[in-house]
Amino acid sequence: MTILSTEPRARFTDLLAAEWIKLWSLRSTPWAFTVGALIVIGINVNAAVADHNNWPGYPDGIKALFVPIWAMRDAYTAGASMVLMLAAGSIGALTIASEYSTGQFRTTFAAVPARGSVVAAKMSVVTVIMLVYGTVLAVTSFGVTQAVLSGRHVGLPFDYPGALRVMAASALLAPVCALTGMALGAVVRHTAATVVTLTFVLLVLPSLLNARNHFSATVLHALPQGAWEQLTEVGDHSFMPDRHPATITGSWMVFAAWSLVSAVVAMVVVRRRDL
Fold this sequence. Notes:
275 residues, mainly alpha, elongated
């Protein structure tokens, strides 16, 4: 005998609300966002303050190149980008890996058998939150660092050529890495192992590559960190010739490819693998 359920099917907006509540019910979530933001902005501001204080002693060659190359690098430093990648990727990984480790996915899929809809809702919530988070950090870092540098008359305005691209790339780095973390969380299923794998892919692997060898440069340009470095490079860098440069369009495509592939991997793995 078939028993027909009288419960209405969950709407996608209901799933979005549920995922929003689950994310913020984790006690580590507000701390991760707050501490990550303070560290990212702190690193960038510290770089600007150091340049402000050291400015009188800089040789003329550095002063000539400071605008826009060094001023733009202070707006979002490589160190800050690494902290952002690790924080965003770890939060994305936790949203899936923690549900496997606690068994919460069994409860969720018992109530909502449509696994694809659940994963889509989870990715939507994480992507929007990370995009807002990344945008706030990018705009705040740019505004504060350039205000500090303005004390030496080398700060850049928001409408300086290339500034919008630097802020957009830095903002998008957060959702790209969060989706990568979600895909790894779906594959690995263990929180600690996922974070270790994520750290290797996003941070350790780029450090093992260089731009001198064609193959190594190609792999580096295909990673999120390599694409971000290309997108945030502003000004004339002819004094440091790049033998295997990447294009701006290609770097945006790297961001899009990592996001799309990560979303597909997370969706397919969660739908097809047993709990």
